[in-house]
Task: structure prediction
Amino acid sequence: MCGIVGYLGNQQAQGVLLDCLGRLEYRGYDSAGIATIDGGKLGMLRCAGKNADLQSLVDRSPLPGGIGIAHTRWATHGRPTDSNSHPHTDCNGALAIVHNGIIENYPELKEQMEDDGHRFVSQTDSEVIAHLIEANFTANIEGGLISAVRKALSLIQGTYALAVISQQEADKIVVARSGGPPLVIGHTDDGLYISSDIAAILHYTRDIQILEDNEIAEICRDGATISLLDGTPVDRARIQIDWQQNAAERNGYPHFMLKEIHEQPQAVLETIKGQTLLADGAVLFPQAAYTTTSQFCLTRRVTILACGSSWHAGLVGKHLIESISGTPVDVDIASEYRYRPQFSHAGTLAIGISQSGETADTLGALKTARNSGAGILAICNVNGSSMGREADGVIYTHAGPEIGVASTKTFTCQLTALVLFAISLGLANGNLSARAAKALLQDLLRLPLLIERILAQSEALAGLARLFDGATNALYLGRGVLFPLAIEGALKLKEISYIHAEAYPAGELKHGPIALIDRNIPIVVIATQGPLYEKLLTAIQEVKARDGAVLVMATDGDRKIGAIVEHVFYLPATTELLMPILMAVPLQLLAYHIAARRGCEIDQPRNLAKSVTVD
Ligand code: AGP
Result:
């Protein structure tokens, strides 16, 4: 949830660190801080607020030095205050640490350290790490800083990705990770970088080493030495990242979210092209050989595990997989699933869907499913993520880095990957003919153009956004494979405009929610052509009869709907099962324009963070 970054090289660290921290801000923006070492002296600045607030502090009193670490925070323990900001130091201010994760046993450790005379200045869990390292460092244990860090970490229960610098060993950064929070090392001739994610250092290097769980590394001018926490040396390959350098830039858009909405035609196409499509309609997933095994053909049940928007994609996935492959699907919210009684999952394939590949609850749920005998597949967007490494196979969405906290292009790419997965399973178990598979793939390949046509109508949605002026509540209705899009549309609105919004299957309306309806609550009804169209018209009539302010998402050429309601947005037609991929776009744009009219912080909505690495 927090973002950490470090640099050691020929340049002045503060400039590099603040630049990268700006690209990590979507991970948390409650406070920020930086520490550097110059001439063996540690300097530190930190404050509640955003990166920009830290920048003005640094402008007033620059921190020299070619080595440093920095942090942007999503508060878990202790309010967003100056003293709770990272970096945290020891009693003498001789070493500094930045931490992402949660230390569960910090109260006991803190009490013990205070008994030993350590003075704490924050309410955070993280500060205890600095004092534990200090205690082991001054104990002069053999092996210097890295051994002191290793010893300190052996006492900690919880999750962490952290970086440490110290005056005593002013030419190195020690980093470590355990339990989830990601950490990567970037290599250049000019210096070395560490970061919570690749996108933040992408414009400095594409030469990356991924630090895996329970690993520690000593970063010096001549390279990184990686080992397990128990000291066993590790030889970790470096990977070359193929993302566009400006992928983490806004490219002239007012917000990353709008840029990423407009990247969807390309992202969906890249996600399709990122797999291998065979002449007979078969789909091969380069990192999921599991889907070519006999075990895959014998999949009797699929369990989809995810959180937030990824869970919504899973709900669409249920319709896709059941309709196309004839295989029953359960969809579960990961944070609930992992604490429920488990039954044998023999013959079950568990699919974890996650943009970041780092969401702690989804990771935990996948491990639970594995322990009950399920095969594990991951659908995620980040190469080298924890989920990718946990699973038996990965279907990568090729959306590129997503900076806006509200997921958009990764959602439509998850749906695209689920269509390809359903086709693959349907062909493998004989439920789908090659002819039908080819037809579906043809329709899928047409979607990028249809999405372009929707994006071209963004201004029309900006106009419809006026319907929500002054609204404090909203209702979204849909049916069948499009009901999950009603939920997703409502979440987008909640996330970025702070309007309370609920979604219901339209058939449920008369069983309660209809009581909410009056002229003050805008209602978005997803009513594209399909087997439930007439039923949706009835729901619209019921809403109109109570003066509800209705906005309908309809299919191009639908003459009937225009006669019933005033406000309609028309989408190009496609097959029913693929309509969710199109429908996501106008719902995203609508939420975007509503939030923009309210001047909301669209890319960094309050209280949220892009990937939730704690549970
Ligand atoms: C969606 O806009 C949110 N960012 C959030 O609900 C997100 O989908 C959820 O935290 C899951 O994240 P993941 O896909 O990285 O696992």
User: Anything to note?
Assistant: The longest strand covers residues 31-38.
